[in-house]
């Protein structure tokens, strides 16, 4: 019985232990569940805090490229973006004095990663730390069950470091023949051209009797028919200008010679009328062989008639610029006002008028290649000069903010050329571009060629592995040629797609009314960039270009590095 009794007591105790175990196990399960819930809350809050720190750091870093008070702007951006985020349903505050730290980054060549050096200049990076702890205004993150254990909440912090990414930028400049159009007479009804400035920059040269510039070319007001700086000389039409007759007399020509020079005796012969005009303009003298003439009887090869042959010209003025024989070049100018499409499209009243205006215009339109007139780069050709000034803006801006960007220069027209390797000596790009002129190498417009040239440079040994790759493409016209004769616009888009596949961002800049902005918009979209357009008068688009390039100077990408 005792044994039985003892057996019964054991059963009772075992039942008691079982009940206690059930209660203990339930308590442990509840505790584990509570811990899991609080851990989940803390984890979610930590992720929210990190996301807020990331956003604040990226926003702050984006302001470091500003030229005026970037640190203040960066702090304000960090504050604003931190406040836009919530952690555990409560907004995040930021201690601007202690939790925003500026510094400089250096690329570790072994790891290919950027290291952050706090307080080192120039500042190109910022570390932002956000806190939800006892020092924060809102305190630690509240937990559901930890308070039962005497824990007020989770003390959390998160840091993020963001940097302005240095860029390898290829400037792609259009050097086609149209890059001086806004200095030419054919645009005189569209904008205020600066043809006189071109002449001034050439040194105000004079040629024969072409010694006076004459009237200013004022938009919508200029009348070439009353311009004393121009002489009206038309083939098959006798010259009746008393100034011409008086000038020839002062130069010693007889009445008979003057009659021959001002008449149309042999204008059916191209060489004769051109020689006649050259003598009238004082670019050569005529040994006519006429009795009582300027050179007297038998003083030359002149046969005494009204034919002005090549062998009768003397004291011939040399053409002022190289390439080819002077005779043929002056003859080319003699033909120019007679039938130039430029004269027709600008103002029909400009046809048949000779003087400094039409001669300088002839250089710009017909002899703009560097091999022909190698001084035009020293003149303010428009829109090319506006482009040069704009490139100067980006050079000044990058230098001013010490951004670490490198620049290269590519140019294109019918073909493309790599001019300057990617370099930190930014003035090399500007100085080289300054020495280029419209139609420097060739004349037409292969936009795709310029993109291809820049693509090659941005993937070359001169490029930096940690730098963002950027193209800035400029044009004032329309893509009209390609290397293989295919559609020029299709070729440009194809080259843009290849560049985009290499993670190159493409910004496009069109200038003037002739720019094909539809194509520029497409190329910028392909290259995940932005399309800009400068238009209006020369003065207006020059100012717009400078502002555009200053904007591009500040468009540095930002990247989280820690």
Question: Main attributes?
Answer:
about 550 residues; alpha+beta; Rossmann fold; 6-stranded mixed β-sheet; 5-stranded antiparallel β-sheet; 15 helices; about 40% helix; elongated; disordered N terminus
Ranges where pLDDT stays below 50 over 5 or more residues in a row are: 1-8, 10-19, 21-25
Mean pLDDT: 88
What is the CATH-assigned architecture of the largest domain? Answer: 3-Layer(aba) Sandwich
- Give me the secondary-structure category: alpha+beta
Strand order of the largest sheet: 15-14-9-16-17-18
Helix content: 25-40%
> What do we call the CATH topology of the largest domain?
Rossmann fold
**Radius of gyration, in angstroms, nearest whole number:** 39 Å
**Count of alpha/pi helices:** 15
CATH superfamily of the largest domain: von Willebrand factor, type A domain
| Main sheet characteristics | 6 strands, mixed
């Amino acid at each position: 019985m005792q044994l039985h009794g003892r057996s019964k007591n054991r059963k009772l105790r075992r039942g008691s232990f079982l009940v206690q175990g059930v209660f203990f196990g339930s308590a442990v399960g509840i505790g584990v569940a509570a811990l899991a819930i609080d851990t989940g809350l803390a984890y979610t809050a930590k992720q929210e805090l990190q996301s807020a720190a990331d956003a604040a750091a990226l926003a702050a870093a984006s302001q470091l490229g500003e030229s005026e008070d970037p640190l203040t702007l960066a702090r304000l951006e960090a504050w604003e973006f931190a406040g836009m985020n919530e952690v555990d349903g409560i907004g995040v505050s930021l201690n601007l004095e202690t939790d925003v730290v500026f510094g400089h980054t250096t690329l570790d060549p072994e790891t290919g990663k950027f290291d952050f050096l706090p307080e080192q200049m120039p500042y190109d990076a910022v570390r932002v730390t956000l806190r939800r702890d006892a020092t924060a205004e809102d305190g630690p993150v509240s937990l559901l069950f930890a308070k039962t254990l005497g824990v007020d909440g989770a003390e959390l912090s998160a840091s993020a470091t963001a940097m302005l990414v240095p860029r390898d930028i290829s400037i792609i400049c259009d050097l086609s023949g149209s890059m001086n159009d806004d200095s030419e007479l054919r645009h005189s009804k569209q904008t205020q051209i600066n043809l006189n400035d071109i002449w001034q920059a050439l040194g105000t040269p004079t040629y024969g009797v072409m010694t006076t510039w004459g009237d200013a070319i004022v938009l919508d007001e200029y009348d070439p028919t009353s311009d004393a700086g121009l002489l009206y000389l038309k083939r098959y039409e006798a010259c009746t200008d008393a100034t011409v007759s008086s000038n020839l007399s002062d130069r010693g020509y007889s009445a008979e010679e003057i009659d021959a020079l001002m008449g149309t005796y042999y204008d059916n012969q191209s060489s004769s009328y051109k020689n006649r005009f050259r003598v009238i303009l004082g670019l050569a003298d005529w040994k006519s062989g006429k009795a009582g003439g300027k050179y007297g009887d038998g003083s030359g090869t002149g046969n005494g008639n009204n034919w002005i042959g090549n062998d009768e010209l003397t004291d011939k003025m040399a053409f002022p610029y190289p390439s080819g024989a002077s005779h043929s070049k002056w003859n080319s100018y003699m033909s120019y006002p007679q039938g130039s499409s430029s004269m027709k499209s600008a103002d029909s009243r400009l046809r048949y008028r000779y003087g400094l205006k039409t001669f300088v215009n002839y250089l710009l339109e017909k002899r703009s290649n560097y091999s022909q007139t190698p001084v035009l780069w020293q003149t303010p050709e428009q829109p090319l000069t506006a482009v040069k000034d704009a490139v100067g803006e980006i050079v000044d801006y990058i230098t001013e903010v010490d951004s670490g960007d490198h620049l290269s220069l590519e140019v294109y027209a019918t073909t493309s050329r790599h001019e300057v390797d990617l370099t930190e000596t930014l003035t090399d790009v500007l100085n080289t571009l300054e020495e280029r002129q419209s139609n420097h190498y060739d004349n037409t417009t292969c936009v795709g060629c310029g993109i291809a040239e820049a693509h090659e440079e941005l993937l070359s040994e001169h490029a930096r592995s940690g730098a963002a790759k950027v193209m800035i493409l400029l044009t004032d016209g329309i893509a009209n040629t390609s290397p293989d004769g295919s559609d020029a616009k299709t070729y440009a888009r194809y080259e843009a797609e290849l560049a985009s596949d290499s993670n190159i961002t493409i910004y496009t800049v069109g200038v003037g009314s002739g720019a094909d902005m539809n194509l520029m918009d497409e190329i910028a979209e392909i290259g995940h960039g932005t399309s800009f357009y400068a238009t209006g008068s020369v003065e207006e688009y020059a100012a717009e270009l400078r502002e555009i390039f200053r904007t591009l100077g500040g468009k540095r990408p930002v990247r989280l590095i820690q």
